[in-house]
Amino acid sequence: MEKSRRREKLAVSLLFGLLLPCCLAQTTPSNAATRTPTRTPTPSPSPQTERIRVRLSGYPRKHNEGRVELFYKGEWGTICDDDFAIANANVLCRQLGFVEATGWTHSAKYGKGQGKIWLDNVQCNGGERSIDSCKSRGWGNSDCTHDEDAGVVCKDERIPGFVESNVIDAQVDEKQIEEVRLRPVVTTARKKLPITEGVVEVKYKDGWAQICDLRWTIKNTHVVCGMLGFPHERKVNKNFYKRLTKRAAEKVSRPKVNVSAGGRQTPKAKANSKTKQSSPGKRLYLERQKNHFHVHSVACAGTEIHLAACPLQFSKPNATSSCEGGMPAVVSCMPGPLFIQNNLKKKPKISNNVRLKGGAKLGEGRVEVLKGNEWGTVCDDRWSLQSASVVCRELGFGSAKEALTGARMGQGIGPIYMNEVKCVGQERSIWNCPFKNITSEDCQHVEDAAVRCNVPYMGVEHSIRLAGGRTRYEGRLEVLSLDSNGTLSWGLICGETWNTREAMVACRQLGLGYANQGVQETWYWDSSNVTEMIMSGVKCTGNEMSLSQCQHHKTVSCQKAAAKFAAGVICSDTASDLVLNASLVQQTAYIEDRPLHMLYCAAEEDCLSKTAAQANWPYGHRRLLRFSSQIHNIGRADFKPKAGRHSWVWHACHGHYHSMDIFTHYDLLSGNGTKVAEGHKASFCLEDTDCQEGVSKRYECANFGNQGITVGCWDLYRHDIDCQWIDITDVKPGNYILQIVINPNYEVAESDFTNNCMKCNCKYDGHRIWLHNCHIGDAFSEEAERRFEKYPGQLNNQIPSINQQ
Predict the structure, then answer these.
(1) Burial of 597 (0-12, 13-18, 19+ CB in 10 A)
(2) 801: burial class by Cβ within 10 Å (0-12, 13-18, 19+)?
(3) Cβ–Cβ < 8 Å for 577, 634
(4) pLDDT tens sequence across 164-198
(5) Cβ atoms within 10 Å, residue 640
(6) How many angstroms separate the CA atoms of 597 and 618, rounded?
(7) Residue ranges of region Disordered (predicted)?
(8) How far, in Å, CA of 242 to CA of 246, rounded?
(9) What's the rounded Cα separation, in Å, for the pair 745 and 765?
(10) Is 705 helix (H, G, I), strand (E, B) or coil?
(11) DSSP classification of residue 315
(12) pTM of the predicted structure, to 2 decimals
């Protein structure tokens, strides 16, 4: 009994001892140095050295959803789902560039993260600009496990003009560097773009300041050139700039003035004086005298992707001479092949086993690498800006602005060759970086890595504008023209021949993403007083940087010259991307001799060769090469017919509507590319046959339903339906190439047309047929060029290959 009482007293005293500090902590004044932290959420202390970066990760997911990960103190970590709410999700989605959140997830729906759990008990009111402004337990203070990782689902609509968050950028501080530029010293360099050589200047307060060149190294130059969109640096003739500086200094200290007999300065002397004032050496000297050196020294390792990441020593504000014995740092950069001047004898080469696909702008896209004869993708596990920069530089761009994860530039096809790529930043190719070979269990194409590279400033966006549209993404096109008198004015582009490929170039030049549609009549956007047509017959391949690089009439020739028939565009941040399942074509191909009496409907829809018209109907048969085609949408927007359902054509024989006259071309080619047989397929029923796990069908043809293909879904045309064939009745035995092209007339815009073509080697012995080596890829761009050159009648015969405006 006594022992029992002792135990009770001991338990009470222990409990009292545990509770007393907590009670004291609740009543201790807030300024007490010994205060014990409580679980009451407080605003997260903002990091003093970097902005918070946010990304979405995990699987399975789309680009606008996923596990939330924050980059803090050089490490990625997650957020616990305790107290998580839609207000938190709204803040995070806006931080990622989406307009709002549509939902949030708990319990690691997108998989468990790794590393730190940076925030717990986060409580936002929804109006904060950043998640670190919300209340929480503080950075790194959590009692959660990764089983409780929070996720968000954002509305798939971007904030207009939003600058992506997954960027290495500097803090907003006087003693940090956010923006860097080259100011050319040599007069001729100022007239050419891109600017490749000049004084390095950094944004400082409301102006620009220089960097002292003392202890300046080639590694610093490498970083600066990368930021400005250049893959390599060149050695600067420093002695040239030193001589100019010295000469200017001597002339300033001992000016020589020619005087006349009357003691006045002669006109010649005045002219010489003017020349000296504007000389490059004089400018360098005066800049040094103005003491605008914001940065005293820089010590980059050469692997940084931003000058702000290098060790910097800033000039003291009251120093009388902040660059004694030095001068402004000058760098010279080597542009990539796309931006190089024509007069350079030796042009740098770019990689032929790495490419970017699916990007709307130059220098961005999904990373694809070539192994053997097949292209594949890179998994985004541990994908970093250093690895992305290696890819960017080997393709002739600068360092990376962003290392994108979660198939942000669309999903690839075929194998995934690399995982956990760990580049240092100095490698010449991504193939030189350590990486892991993977299996299908490790990664899926929803984890394809992508990049956005720094590209040189070319100024092409200033020579084109949109007018009259409801949003900044649409309108009538107006281009800047210089007339014979040297006067600049805006004129219009003739809408005749204007189509999707031309709109792709215009949207790219405007920096507005993908082309949703090229418009030939713009009467409903009539809000401008510009009425003159200055361009006509514009014809682009779709890969040009600006409309001035496209073919067009030497002299304006426009039958419908009224302003309401001027060209216009509708641009979009996202686009669809169709690709054919090549292996299914190879597996399902066979020959059928089909009786003519079963082909009346097919003949009505022009699905047979021309010689069928001379056949003895209904007797006899036609020999058909049949196969199935499964068409996937791996883009970031649904594929929908250009025409609305009110204009779909009803075919009574087959009893269905055609939403697109030609959806696919089926061609049998000889070895030299000559067409020996052909077929075509109208989209009589464009729908979601099946979808990836977690993706819902949206399009179904039944009952005059909407037609299209959802992102992550595919449409299957079976081998046993009408017109799913090539009529090879007149083809002799031999070796051929089977070619299938989706969306051949570019009727609907896509993010990547180069994967719309499939080719197979084909052997025909007169009775049976064998397909092998079926592959998707660049064959389409070659075919597009061949078609472009083959039908010059679409263009004015006098048009030069490239007519620079």
Answers:
(1) exposed
(2) exposed
(3) yes
(4) 543 333 233 445 677 899 988 876 666 688 999 98
(5) 18
(6) 5
(7) 30-50, 252-281
(8) 6
(9) 33
(10) coil
(11) P
(12) 0.69
